[in-house]
């Protein structure tokens, strides 16, 4: 049951963090190249966090 919860909530978490990242980049007036780097770093970090917590809770 916990596995299904993670599958449905993972896109919500990614959307929320991307919205927060957009606000951060907008507030800091970052260049396009810097924005890409920030988005990539945050998305990879959140994806690793979600996968590790999924594995921890399901197995």
Question: What do you see in this structure?
Answer:
By secondary structure, the chain is mainly alpha-helical. The protein has one domain (2-58). It has helices spanning 2-28, 32-58. Helix content is 92%, strand content 0%.
List keywords for this structure.
about 60 residues; about 90% helix; mainly alpha; about 0% strand
Summarize the structure.
This protein has 59 residues and is mainly α. It is built from two helices and no strands. The protein is elongated.
SSE layout and pairings?
Layout lengths: L1 H27 L3 H27 L1
Helix pairs in contact: 1-2
**Largest sheet composition:** none
Helix content: over 70%
Could you say how many structural domains there are in total? 1
Q: What structural category arises from helix and sheet content?
A: mainly alpha
Q: Could you tell me the mean pLDDT?
A: 92
Order of helices and strands: HH
Number of strands: 0
Total helix count? 2
Shape: elongated
Nearest-angstrom radius of gyration? 14 Å
- Low-confidence sequence ranges: none
- What percent of residues are in strands? under 5%
């Amino acid at each position: 049951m916990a596995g299904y919860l993670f599958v449905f909530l993972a896109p919500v978490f990614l959307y929320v963090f991307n919205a927060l990242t957009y606000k951060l980049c907008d507030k800091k007036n970052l260049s396009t190249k810097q924005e890409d780097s920030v988005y990539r770093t945050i998305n990879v970090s959140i994806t690793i966090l979600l996968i590790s917590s999924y594995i921890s809770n399901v197995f």
